[in-house]
């Protein structure tokens, strides 16, 4: 099999191939391995493949594996391998595609597999629904089942977090916040942390201060997350001095700042262009022996205005041993495309693959978009096709534009064939149309103008 390759190929190379975006090859290998004598799949392997199938919306194939697990594996005859975690994977996958009905039906299937169903499992269902923005449905489900699963601080915190930090709706968060009060459900430190984080994200600094003062009046001891949220709100509102004083106050209470605390200050400073102040905090982190996170570097990358700045930050990141993830590569590819430095784009693209990170949808969209906006239509189309071949959905506008370009190109080539005109290597119909009188130049010119106008409007950052 191609996925295994030549005899003697090392384990790391095989695993890298399996964990890539080629899920069909991975599934084929999984099925082939299960038929080998003396070998049986483990819980972890089943769960991994079920999660991948669910992600690719191959739910029937996923349920077929669960039925196989119920029989004790492919050979059968053993105890059921299905656990609460198995069905929770399916609940999360259904929630991700917003199929709430099937997520709920999967929850009620616990009993069919002789699995215990309690408050903990119900909370897992609510969390899965909220995680993928099905918060309204989760709230209805919570209240409809209040006689079976009593309303508690934890259950309301799940809904509160969904509205506040997933949907990011201060209005809905405020409604749930007061409903907890009206129902007599006590609000704990997690409740306060959730609502403060929401107000902080939405620049409602007055509400942050109000809730923070209320918390102190009730003698609820703030945790590190609450301090981080308030510090972040202060910095976003330009109250850096107050943020510093609050950081000093938390130290006096024995709560030591973490990398996330510093990120809460660095990120808004970078967004405002105060990179010198942000770098001072960065140096302070290092002095305190706090390792910057990938989010720390992302803040500086977003603030970078030249390739030299970005490369300098990248060098620091590598020196500190902080690994780049998909988001890092996507962000940098987008920036270098904007700066028309495709030598660095291809270096990053190849490095991403060599580091075991197969390009995901966001990576492809950033690359194709960048190539398109820089007039590199042949390459943009090539990677667009490659993206679709991996089962990744392209942006509708990108697909429409590239399809229109390909249709125009084919029409042009057919026109040249009909007229007996020979194509010269490197010929550009937009710049050399006088040499080829039968080329529909006006059509190509309008198309190219449309490409630029559409994508400049849709991508003002480019």
From TrEMBL:
InterPro entries: PPR-containing_protein (IPR050667), PPR_rpt (IPR002885), TPR-like_helical_dom_sf (IPR011990). This is Uncharacterized protein. PPR repeats lie at residues 188-222, 223-257, 258-292, 325-359, 360-394. The lineage of its organism: Eukaryota, Viridiplantae, Streptophyta, Embryophyta, Tracheophyta. The keyword Nucleus does not apply. Keywords: Repeat. Belongs to the PPR family. P subfamily. Coiled coil: none annotated. The keyword Ligase does not apply.
